[in-house]
Fold this protein.
Amino acid sequence: MTTSNPTIRREVPVRREISLRMREALHGYAFILIWVVGFALFAAIPLYETFQYSLNQVSVTTGSIELSFVEWANYSRAILTDPNFIELLIGYTIETLVSVPIVLIFAMVGIGLRINLGKLLRTGSQALVFGIAVWAVQIAVVITIVWLSGALFS
């Protein structure tokens, strides 16, 4: 008597390989997601709350902050009745238009020197190249701090 064991066939799940294009797309989305989360946490949410506070009269009492909605009254008071508003707006605009390009130029020069000269000089002079890059960025930061403090335009 012959006994035969019936063969049980199970389907082996086939692991689907992700194509290179899909993998690169997922990596790109991961980089974008990090930026979006950072922007939401550190820029978008504070900007929203600042705008919300600007539409309210804020009263700080013991243990609480009271908001009373005043619509656009804060903006109309600042623009129409504040005598310093136009002067300050012009001053900040000039500071921004001058300081941002200077900071960007110094930062790009410093980073460019670090990248390009660092490849050419593989000896001990890399410290010199790195020092130039650090000084360029520090100069840009000092210029920005001086202008933001109002020392040059006041």
Summary: Helices lie at 20-54, 73-80, 85-120, 126-149. Residues 19-82 form one domain.
